[in-house]
Here is the input.
Amino acid sequence: MDVEVRPVGKLRESAAAQAAFGPLIEALCRSPADLSRLRVVCDWIQYSSNFREPVASRQVIGGEPGQLELAIDLRRCADADLPGAVAAVLGEPAEAGGCTWLEPWVSGRESCIWRFNSLYWQALSLWEKATGREYEQSLPGGESDARNTEAARELILELFKLWDELDARRALPEELYVLELGVGNGNQARTWLDQFVELDRRHGRDYYRRLHYLMGDYSAHVLDRARQAVAHHGEHVSALVVEATRPAITLGFLTGKTFLVYISNVYDNLPTDEVACIDGRMYLVQTRAHVAGAGRLAGRFGVQRQDLEPLIQRLLRIGPELLSESVPEHFADPSQAVSFWQAAWQALRLAERYVLLEGLDTYRISPSLTGEILRPLLEGHGDIRMHVSNGTMASFADTLPLLHPFGRVQCHDLFLTGQADYRTGFYGPGKYDGSVVNWVNGPLLQLLASRRGFDVRFAPFRQRPGSNVKTMTAQVRD
Ligand SMILES: C[S@@+](CC[C@H](N)C(=O)[O-])C[C@H]1O[C@@H](n2cnc3c(N)ncnc32)[C@H](O)[C@@H]1O
Here is the structure.
């Protein structure tokens, strides 16, 4: 039996985590599980709202027959009936009846949790009205770092320097394009543009007259809000519906022209798979969404338990407002449908299993990238599990061609900067209000950039150095 403890720092600090091991081993010894094929993996899930039960089992399919993983969340095990939970999950596979499943087994990026995520951004105001909180409050630090005035000014002054140099060589185009992907409430666009105007006035080169600030987002609702936030910048701003994982479809006209692509807190919100290396074999983590406490949830909203799954599917298709119109007998007004949405989201869990990958080249990260690129990160490092950050990889690859030869991508987000980090922490998925968060696989992004002739650098977010948010900059390699 292998026991892997990832949160070694937390283990030293937490008496409850240390105390969990005695009862855990006792429960394992009492269970009928074949201990010679059992892996026990302990995490510390820092997100109080997440998709896991404190104790869960995961089948390993295609490796050693009968191999099983037992997953423990050390943060919550003091509050859980650990021996009872271990006995339950080892006695009854996750596939057994009694569960309200929302989908078949799929890879992480295909899960319906991303439909919930998208619904959150499409119907953000309804959610915020119900909670009385703005989405920014759930971001690291309680507000978006892209709103930081000092960071915005630094970036703008660097742009001015570049533009002055190009101008001196008569190489500065008339139109100066800046693109922001994933604009949220538009606060960061407003901060950036307001600072731009002020600095441009002082700089005296009239760059503002030539500036086009493009805001791209997949939520028309969010774009509307952002547009209002920057209305005073008039013609200098355009709002476009853009799928961040395929920006070139809408933004192809910017190819080779964009001086700055500005992104914050978006990459950690894009769909991702996870892969793992166990005993030298590569696996894809498959997930399956289900509802915990389905009976309670159904009872609370006066629906039959068997109607719960179709009702959630309908919510995901048409949103809470139309749901209340279509089944007024359950939801008399939109606010009740929003309560149902929030309760379903809170009850949403992901079962997981590992499925052998026949070869890394048979796995596609994105339409233009195979899993081969993962090899140096996965092979030869012992047992490891990591995110593939598929949405980010696709977005980034599609964004690079939009850059002017001297342009850059600048991004504030949750990045891992070394694959060894995966051994010691939990990096998602977690829930931020109604959205999904997964840290981004920084070393993988660096590998992709380097294949395309770009350098990717990570630095602490200078204005809040203690935070988990890092600043990523991508530019053509010197
Ligand atoms: C956490 S918010 C960040 C907003 C803002 N940049 C900030 O830092 O406050 C994520 C934003 O990304 C957008 N978004 C998420 N997934 C997207 C996708 N696949 N395509 C386009 N926009 C997406 C959401 O609509 C939302 O506006």
Q: What stands out?
A: The CA atoms of residues 245 and 395 lie 4 Å apart.
